[in-house]
Amino acid sequence: NATEEDLLEKYIDATGQIQRALDSKPGARDNLENVIEVVDPLPIEVVSRSIVYMSDKADTYSPRTTDNVKKSLDSDDIPEMVGVAVEVIKTVEDINARSDVYGAHWDAERIRLEQQLGVIEHGLESHPVTDLQAVCYDYKKNLEKKREDMKTSQLPTEVLEEALQELQHQYEFLSHVVRDVGGWRTALYLDNGDVDIDVDVSIWEDADRSEMLSVINETIRLKMYEAEQAQKSQAREMKKARRSMAK
After folding, report:
1. Given this model, what pLDDT does residue 247 score?
2. Assign residue 153 a region: left if phi > 0, alpha if psi is -120 to 50, beta otherwise?
């Protein structure tokens, strides 16, 4: 039953919180470090909503300030970002599934929510892929633990299943983000194309870990071969030099 004004008010209020935070530190708006300092304590939901509104009102809000607020998400808490993203996805799915219940003005809200989701996804993609996968690994372990706990828990089944489903959604969403940024290949290969033989493979899925270990082992084998060939070449050169000196 919310009106368009009611829906939009959430974004206006979030932007107001951001603006007050920026005003609390002189010169913060155009300095990324200062923006991060004052914005970081605010909830991800507030920050992401404000970015949607500020981007839509580019004639009112400085693009540089908006961009700095976006960048503040690059170092934010991954689980919190995932939690907000999953809630946004649920709302969008509900709007799409029950369009006959929601008014036409909810179409604009759905667009804003999709933009908010894009903002959060972009922020997550700016994190190192190993950090993202480490959280994925924790989700998976927690899923396994909750499934075991369900066998002996005295809590109502529906409560346990709801908690399990929520965690499953978070795991699936973040797994999707990890794949989008290149997955295990991004973690394994350095910017110069070399293989990082010291990368942590324990946090990856079994199939990914197998692929990674295969590449690492082949890289080590090749390095050993090259070192052996270099050693043999050096020995030959030294032998030639001794023969030359003996003449």
Report:
1. 63
2. beta
Task: Tokens 């894009």: give the residue.
Answer: 118
Using CA atoms, how far residue 193 sits from 10, 91, 146, 154, 187, in Å, is 45, 41, 40, 53, 11
Written in H, E and C, the secondary structure of 20-81 is HHHHCCCCHHHCHHHHHHHHCCCCHHHHHHHHHHHHHCCCCCCHHHHHHHHHHHHHCCHHHH
The pLDDT tens digits of the residues spanning 196-212 come to: 999 999 999 999 999 99
User: Which of 78, 7, 99, 84 lies closest to 47, judged by CA?
Assistant: 84
Task: Tell me how many helices (H) and strands (E) the chain has.
Answer: 10, 0
The whole-number pLDDT of residue 87 equals 96
Nearest Cα neighbor of 169 from 80, 77, 81, 87 is 87
* Whole-number Å distance between alpha carbons of 88 and 105: 17
What pLDDT was estimated at residue 188? 97
- DSSP β-bridge partners for residue 189: 195
3-state percent breakdown (helix, strand, coil) of the chain, nearest 5: 75, 0, 25
Asked if pLDDT for residue 90 goes beyond 70, the answer is: yes
Q: What is the 3-state secondary structure (H, E, C) of 172-226?
A: HHHHHHHHHCCHHHHHHECCCCCECCCCCCCCCCHHHHHHHHHHHHHHHHHHHHH
Measured between its terminal Cα atoms, the distance across the chain in Å is: 101
Model confidence over 149-182: pLDDT tens digits?
A: 888 888 888 888 898 999 999 999 999 999 999 9
Q: Name all contacts of 36-39 with Cβ < 8 Å and 24+ positions apart.
A: 36/68, 36/71, 36/72, 36/75, 39/69, 39/72
Across 84-90, average pLDDT: 97
Coil, strand or helix: which one is 14?
helix
